[in-house]
Amino acid sequence: MTSLSSLVTIERHILDQQGQHPGATGRLTSLLYDIALAAKLIARETTRAGIANILGATSDENVHGEKQQKLDVYADQVIFRMNDHTGRVCVMASEEHDDLLPIPAHHQPGYYVLIYDPLDGSSNIDVNASIGTIFAIHRKITPGDGHGTMDDVLQPGSRLVAAAYVIYGSSTMLVYSTGNGVHGFTLDPSVGEFLLSHPDIRIPAPGQYYSVNHGHHKYWSPGIRHYVAWLQALEDTDRQPLEHRYIGSMIADFHRNLLRGGVFVYPANERRPNGKLRLTYEAQPLAFIAAQAGGYASDGIGDILDLQPRDLHQRVPVFMGNRDLVEKAEWFLRRFDRDLLAEYEKRR
Question: Is residue 204 part of a domain?
Answer without folding.
Answer: no
